[in-house]
Write a structure and sequence with these properties.
The protein contains 2 helices and no strands. By secondary structure, it is mostly helical.
């Protein structure tokens, strides 16, 4: 639930650890390399 807030309005990839590693990986693949 809180992960959604971190994904959309979150310019930086700072979602909580253990929240959704699969979703986080998908967002990382879709988003450009911001690191």
């Amino acid at each position: 639930r809180h992960a959604v807030k971190y994904f959309r309005p979150g310019p930086r990839l700072d979602w909580p650890e253990g929240a959704t590693s699969r979703e986080s990986l998908r967002s990382v693949w879709k988003l450009p390399r911001l690191q």
